[in-house]
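Dig into these lines:

——
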Amino acid sequence: MAKIDDINRRILQELSANGRLSNAELADRIGLSPSACLRRVQELERAGVILGYRARLNPAALDSGFVVYVCVGLSKHTKAESREFERAMARASQVSECHNVTGSIEYLLRIEVADLDAYKHFHTDVLGTLEQVRSITSYIVMDSPKDERA
């Protein structure tokens, strides 16, 4: 695993803010030669610290600006029920994140759809048809003053 020293932390911070930085620009910002900077970035990639690069998309431009966090409780707490629920969520295009969590529920979902009608369809025709689902609690996002997901 790559050592995460102060220089690597700065590299990761810069790339997290802008993954499209050229190696030359990144090296200049960090204060390294381009070759030394490239070696460090490649080592961070090989070590699995940097998993990849992706574009941040504008959800409103893609008709998915209506965001809902959904807490889902399962009716049975078996591995088979959990796997079946996870497979169903993997197939659902509305689900951008699915997290197995601890507490009074089993799953926390991030749903991104066009509007309330589209969420109602997901709630009724996707979640509502799964026999594994015992409870559904929805939290509609009104604003996101801080969102650092890539």
The helical segments are 6-17, 23-30, 34-46, 79-91, 116-125.
